[in-house]
Design a protein that fits this description.
single chain, alpha+beta, five-stranded antiparallel β-sheet, 2 helices, 31% strand
Length: 105
C-alpha cells in the first residue's frame, strides 16, 4: 500500500458494498446476483473531468454525491444481469456513504 493510500477497514468495505447494492437497485433499477466484490481501495488519480465523463456516459437522471478533488474509495464488482456477467467499478466518497461515479468495465 502506498503512502497516498488510505487504510480502509473491513467495516468500510461492508458499508461500501451496501451503498453499491442500494445504488444498483434504486438508481439503476437492477436486481442482480452479485458474484464478487474486490477489496476496497483508494485513489487520488481520478480528476473532476474524468468523473464528469463517467457521469455523462452513464444513465441519465442519477443523483450523485458532489465531488471535490481529493481521495476517492473504489470497489469493483462482478454480477449477473439476467444471464450476462457484468463488471463495474464504483467510486465512493471518503466515508464510503455515497456513490460519486461508476463505470461499466
Amino acid at each position: 500500500m502506498t503512502a497516498a493510500s488510505l487504510f480502509v477497514s473491513c467495516g468500510q468495505r461492508q458499508q461500501a458494498k451496501s451503498v453499491i447494492k442500494d445504488f444498483m437497485e434504486q438508481s439503476l433499477h437492477k436486481d442482480v446476483k452479485y458474484l464478487d466484490f474486490s477489496d476496497l481501495d483508494s485513489t487520488k488519480a481520478i480528476s473532476d473531468s474524468v468523473i464528469m465523463v463517467m457521469r455523462q456516459r452513464g444513465p441519465k437522471g442519477i443523483q450523485y454525491k458532489d465531488y471535490k478533488d481529493g481521495t476517492l474509495l473504489y470497489l469493483r464488482t462482478s454480477y449477473l444481469d439476467d444471464q450476462d456477467t457484468c463488471c463495474a467499478t464504483f467510486y465512493l466518497d471518503r466515508e464510503a456513504t455515497s456513490i460519486v461515479a461508476f463505470k461499466q468495465n
